[in-house]
Amino acid sequence: MSSAADRARRLAHKAESDFVIARLGFEHKQALDMVCFHLQQGIEKLLKALLECRGIEYPHTHNLVALIDLAERSFPTLKQFRTWLPDYIPYAVHVRYDEVLYPDAEETQSALIQAEEFRGTAHALLDSEGVSL
Questions:
Q1: pTM recorded for the entire structure
Q2: CB 85 within 8 A of CB 62
Q3: How confident is residue 30, by pLDDT bands cut at 50, 70 and 90?
Q4: What is the pLDDT of residues 69-112, one digit of tens each?
Q5: What is the dihedral of CA 116, 30, 64, 56, to 10 degrees?
Q6: Inter-axis angle of helices 32-53 and 64-74, to 10 degrees?
Q7: Where are the domains of the chain?
Q8: What is the topology classification, in CATH, of domain 4-127?
Q9: By the 8 A CB rule, do 78 and 71 touch?
């Protein structure tokens, strides 16, 4: 059986794959809807990794607000991200099927900058918990 740290590490590693794909898509100005999808997925996995490393049970959800509600209790510094995390929720499912929801380059760049800021904070928190990649 794997430890909470191992499970958190695997989630964080998967999140890194999402960020790599997002950066590649953005660099090539291709599939910006999927860039935003992978940014949302990376953030979601990092939130779940933080919860996992503390042994906190979390729901099977793409709702970043529900996840940050749980994570913020143990990691108060995450509160700074609460203002924009709800904007990423439609990227989890709706962007893959909604014909109208298609982020432009400016929206995608903004999403990437915010997601990278979250990523840095999450990795610092994971490192402080002894969970490094």
A1: 0.95
A2: no
A3: very high
A4: 999 999 999 999 999 999 988 888 877 776 777 899 999 999 99
A5: -70
A6: 30
A7: 4-127
A8: Four Helix Bundle (Hemerythrin (Met), subunit A) (1.20.120)
A9: yes
